[in-house]
Fold these 3 entries.
Entry 1:
Amino acid sequence: MVEQSAEPPKPDRPLKVALLGCGVVGSEVVRLLVEHQADFAARVGAPLELAGIAVRRGGRHRDVPVDPALFTTDAQALVRRTDIDLVVEVIGGIEPARSLILAALDNGASVVTANKALLAEDGATLFAAAEKRGTDLYYEASVGGAIPLIRPLRESLAGDRVRRVLGIVNGTTNFVLDRMDTEGTSFAEALEEAQELGYAEADPTADVEGFDAAAKAAILASLAFHTRVLASDVHREGITQVSSVDVESARAMGCVVKLLAIAELAADGTGVGVRVHPAMIPREHPLASVRGAYNAVFVESAAAGQLMFYGAGAGGSPTASAVLGDLVTVARNRVQGVRGAAASTYAQLEVHPMGETPTRYHISLDVYDRAGVLASVANAFSRHGVSIQTVRQEGRGADAQLVVVTHQAPDRALTATVEELEDLDSVREVTSVMRVEGLGDR
């Protein structure tokens, strides 16, 4: 669906592009724009001309094939130039990115961004500004790198009813958990390897604490359920507490541990739940085979059924590919004098708190090996209305280990059950608690 936009430029003149940021992604965008300029001109219907590159520090040598005179440290002046048609933002963060995008939109430029954090925090302001000026705001690169996710949810599935989105959307954490599973390394060792390979930053907090995945989950949920979801609405847990014991417990029950972003429609259709946390999933589940730093998103909808999108979720080239795909689209819209499909938030469903979300737990307990212990544990589950699916006990002298997998129950009931188990005289220690996804009714 497209809308008529402002008077389009004549196809015989180049469309001028301003680039904000020239780091790993930005430099790759420049390289591809220069190397394939004839192809882009043919796809768009007009040449794309790089008119300026805003950087934080001037005077530095940058290994990109352009005239150094294109670099500027005055990003505001660049986006406010009257000849700029298209703005690409790849600097990240909230400010100055928000102010620069708003200035570009106000100036009538179409914008392409990869800024997941900004979209998850204040996307409504940006979309409203684009709507007001009748320009495009595209953001395919904000989730999943080169994996096409935004457009399928916004356009291809617009006639369907999405019920659930379940995905691995952070390559760093997937690499770490994969190494813990396949190589038996500790969390610290796996993270150090990820940093050495360039998959993790020197400060990996945004990845390992789930902030990056939560921002992406908010964007996916907003699109899937036509409801404004902010990063602050997303229940978030990282992987720093995942231990070798958790990984071994998952293996024993035929599962693997993944950091999952989950957005799902409530059973009655009146609300949505959005969460990011580590979980055990069966090894036969499609997401269990996603290895290394790759990403994958599993979409379940009423008519299309189950769909899976898989690929490289980060890195300069994959992200630049998504950025340039959007750039070609908004440039083509510009030439044709139309505006692309806007993000729809007509539903405005309630975002349910995590406590109301149906989940199931895998719980490992060290208990005293004596009569009545299993009964006292079972009673704790019963008092909170939590049904036990399986229980396994292994004796170890005077002690024993109990491993319990529950049926689905509200998360607050499961949390209350764990708290009671920790206080039981018969329980020495609750050694592992992790949610379980993808088991179905088995």
Note: The chain has a mean pLDDT of 92.
Entry 2:
Amino acid sequence: MSRSPRSLAMLLAALSAIGPFAIDTYLPAFPAIAAELGATKVQVQQSLTIYLGFFALMTLWHGALADALGRRRVVLWSLVMFFLTSVGCALATQIEHLWIARALQGMCAGAGMVVGRAIVRDLFDGAQAQRLMSTIQLLFALAPAAAPIIGGWVFALSGWRAVFWFLAAYSALMWVVCLARLPETLDPDHRRSLHPVKLARDYAHMYAHPALQALVVAVSMNFAGFFLYVMSAPTFLMEHLGVSPQGFAWLFGPTVAGMMTGSWLARRLAGRMAPQRQLKIAYTVMLAAALINVAMNLLMPASLPWAVLPVALYNIGQALAMPILSLLALELFPRARGMVSSCQAFVQSLTNTAAAGLVVPLLWGEPLHLAAGMAAFVVVGWLAWLRYRALHPDQVT
């Protein structure tokens, strides 16, 4: 089992990509799923909301299980479960069957992301941890770009069920690779109890910590500003911009290029620029992008490529901020990094669920409404970061 930073980054990025792959690959097939299963557009959208809801709930357990049983065991079993639930999605004959399979799929899809953050901090610290986290994010950024494109072509060639067979094959391949290459990074002496009362007490203690509250809200709101467009992609692209199911690269290509650019910058700046200064730059970019997005939608009809360029710019700032905010949170509880990672993932997933089920259907009718939603999310994230700075004035540069 190699612990080379580069090979480890590639492996953890591939594991983290399971979550976005399960979200984005079937987006181009929404109309076909609705037609074959006799469902409405909103009912198919709810298959995504249900997935995200159970994804969020289970993230509270992924970190706790990894702190108690070890990182490697949790990842391997989650991949087995993801394989089985992907098969269940492929065999669905009613929308209710798809809802059930997607709920179970959501329960196991987040383990790679949650456990991966803990593995990084188990092995590295300081600038080296930031560089590795940025590298993982850089590679991980390929997933949202590749997933809808792959999904669109798989759907065009073999129908929507083939998309879920693709997910099953991906998880099987990852299981084989992890069995051979994923190291166990948690010292047995540092393993924690899974007693429900103790877990509840530990989580209550963490969520009551003002600095952790501020950091997890900041990460979640920053990402939600972009994720809003991911969730509304079928309507935004196909209805407002006239894109075909095979043309989702119009959104995901530029926006993921922005995320990769921000991740590359974060990696280059690690150890060279004070983290708080880097966060100032990141929020300046995100707030400027959100303002430009609103202004463009007020002044001109949404059209390609202009409608997606502010989202790409936004993602540069979002990716520049995320590694630092995540690592600052992990530093708050160094003996329970798995649980801290779960706290971050839970709040982010819960935010995504609320956005998919409540916010997106309210905003997807007009591109201007989506732009306003992005602006609202990033303002909340910025205020949360200001709250963290007030709690830790010694870190402000």
Note: The chain is about 80% helix and 0% strand.
Entry 3:
Amino acid sequence: MTRPLGSIAGVLAAIAVALTGTRVSAIALPWFVLTTTGSAAQTGLVAFAELAPYVLVKALAGPLVDRAGPRRVSWLADVLSAAAAAAVIALHTLAMLPLGALLALVALIGAARGPGDLAKEVMIPEAAERARVPLERAAGLMGVTERLAQTVGPVAGGALVAVTGPLTGLGLSAACFALGSVIVAWTLPRDMGHRPAVHDEREGYWRRFGQGLAFLRGEPLLLAVAVMVAVTNLLDAAFSQVLAPVWAKESGYGPAVLGLNSSVMGLTAVAGSLVAAAVAHRLRRRPVFFAAFLLCGAPRFLILAVDAPVWVMAGVFALSGFGAGFINPILGAVSYERVPRELLGRVNSLQQALSWGGIPLGGLLGGVAVAAAGLGPVLLACAGLYALTTNLTGLRPEWREMDRAR
């Protein structure tokens, strides 16, 4: 008999090790390509080969996750990711890894990680139900897990690659993916993940895909969330990929202060997620949600646009991280409450695809804007756009549904 907390602990552990493996790989793989080829263009090509299949397959995988069951999909995705990462190491060791083979293996990792991450997220509401904990707390714990992995993974990956080389980092990624599959197989009950209704067994992929699309179109709140987050994700991508590095170079502060700001924000985001997991279910969601965005959005852009001391910048990034820690727990709880369990995979995959749509464009648009107008005006314009997006949209009537649990 499974212990009440066993399911949610197993899902969170699987998320933790899989995300850690992904973050370590994000350090080790580009460095591996750069050191073995010396080509920045090939490094960028390999990064695209992993990210593009991740986004595309995750967008299309929802009906398959609902049909096959999230536990099975999660296990298979982790196995494929581990095998592909191990194959990169083995083929390179045997001097049998041309660029085409590397691109194919990296694309396989990306294509597997998309549905694998989606499947783990889909299991959160059932795990919360089995553990008898509020959805906000379960989503908050998932947020804590994600923030920790995003903070610890790059640090561990960078240190390991610096000391032992990129192949060791790729080996650690493969081990994390393999451990994730073991956790899913050993800790989660076989009936984890609600099976579809009997009539759904005879429905084809595109019919199930259409059901998810029709449901999302009929949920104004979920659509509003996806559109707003798509804009903020684009601005965040421009900030992290272009604006912050350009600021570090032009200001003279360099990568050390850039890394300090990122680390401070990551650590306080973990703290914010912990607080959200403890108390978010007792708070009104809408004011907390928009207050969190007020902290984590525009201030980061504004503080880089002025000549502020390092300690002031670190304080702003600390407040931004703390606010950011509340966002995903609230969004997760709203989505889990409003989407029927049997539609979670197909609806969440579409919503996340819409939310992530601007990320590949963020760096490109940010670079063009800085080249055309300069860093300062672009930082101020992005801060204004961030504030308008996250505050004016909150005045629309559908956001009132956020505090009405279903």
Note: The CA atoms of residues 208 and 237 lie 32 Å apart.
